[in-house]
């Protein structure tokens, strides 16, 4: 139901004003318009946000390009002759740009057909009900609103140590027209490892610097170890326990100073994390509470400390994942306009790191599960998939299933291997529903597949804590 009678409003009065045209903002705006609200959305850049324009989507398209290269030796074993295959980054870049333009067009049409009014420019919050937009066309407008939603996302963090202005961001990597011969990667989170794998697949010599002993802090330790091994097997140089001090430009090279050493590269990727995009928004004008990193503090209903002001997605620093931002936005809007009381369960979100091979997880890590449950059954398997073995490859797939011994409930699933993002998405349904190991075992396998291993794990690898 609409809260408003359109005829009583001027063109710049809204029920909901959304700042940010990324995944969370667009999904929220469209949902609110579908509920009959008069909605405006302000975006200064392209529609689609980080995920569509400079994140998940182009990254995956680049990953496909790298994967074709990685499969060339396998292709030969299957009888195909692909001698003298070469990769032309500029062709990929041109085709990627066309695809992103197409997707942005879809976002734009979807907003338009939902009846959301789009303002292109920089938004500054004047007070909880007033936003000033400095339009990209040079025109300044003042909008008023009953409710305000901030969904401005995040951007690359450049203050981990000095000289990061000389390093490329993930945005820059996605716009390259040539593959750098030597690439240094700073950090070992999602972005670092995905681009390390991809650029290695495209032919770069890649070195990854990180301060922990294993990459991907926060993931299950066994999968972190296996992933590190897989990255090294691909020819990536890992520099764990690195103390990164500075990035410098010396002539044509970019130099990473770490420990007592200087390492030279043709390009360096800064993947030391992202910060909430709040600069210039005017949050101080309404006194909204923010965290140390500038992220907007919200409760489980995505309400900020200021009445009628809400925030969803990366800007809240909860979980920087597109589907989470969309779910947070839709839950908020349904609650506001239809009286539901939906929340998003951030604990059971499945996730995939698109490395090569990809690493995918749902539920608890073994370390966290061991703290949570008195006795844990750990099931593991590692094998060379049929496709790899046939071609004489060595890349293994690793699977781990964690079960609470008392209830038989599956509390964590981890997989490092091809197709793991697709497999984990389906398994996430079972894990979220509270499936037991007996129910996994009672499921008939689809043969021959890799995923069948999940219903064929009979032997407990170990108990945690260990049994006498
Ligand atoms: P992450 O938080 O995943 O990784 C940041 C990395 O930078 C870590 O290795 C961290 O090390 C390191 N780091 C941070 N500060 C410093 C410092 N001062 N000195 C040295 N190293 C430092 O961030 P990303 O930027 O990779 O990704 C941002 C978010 O985007 C992710 O959290 C994820 O939610 C999302 N994302 C999701 C993807 C997916 O779903 N496939 C893909 C890409 C991004 P340490 O561990 O030691 O703190």
Furnish the topology, listing elements before pairings:
Elements: E1 13-19, H1 23-34, E2 39-43, H2 49-54, H3 56-77, H4 89-114, E3 117-127, E4 130-135, E5 140-150, E6 154-156, H5 170-173, E7 182-186, H6 190-201, E8 205-209, H7 221-233, E9 237-239, E10 244-250, E11 253-258, E12 261-265, E13 267-270, E14 274-276, H8 283-286, E15 309-311, H9 322-338, E16 351-353, E17 359-363, H10 366-372, E18 376-383, H11 386-390, E19 397-404, E20 410-416, H12 420-432, H13 437-441, E21 462-464
The structure holds NADPH dihydro-nicotinamide-adenine-dinucleotide phosphate.
Provide structural commentary:
Helices cover 31% and strands 25% of the residues. The chain is of the alpha/beta class and 468 residues long. The chain folds into three domains: 13-52 and 93-154 and 275-347, FAD/NAD(P)-binding domain, CATH 3.50.50; 164-272, 3-Layer(bba) Sandwich (FAD/NAD(P)-binding domain), CATH 3.50.50.60; 357-459, 2-Layer Sandwich (Enolase-like, domain 1), CATH 3.30.390. It has a six-stranded antiparallel beta sheet, with helices on both faces. It has a five-stranded mixed beta barrel with strand order 1-2-3-4-5. A four-stranded parallel beta sheet has the order 9-8-7-13. α6 links the parallel β7 and β8 (205-209). α1 (23-34) runs parallel beside α4 (89-114), α1 packs parallel to α9 and α3 (56-77) packs across α6 (190-201). The longest helix is centred in the first third of the chain and has 26 residues, at 89-114. The chain is globular. 43% of the residues are buried. Residues 1-7 have low confidence and may be disordered. The chain binds NADPH dihydro-nicotinamide-adenine-dinucleotide phosphate. NADPH dihydro-nicotinamide-adenine-dinucleotide phosphate (NDP) binds at residues 160-161, 187-192, 194, 210-212, 217, 244, 271-274, 320-321, 351-354.
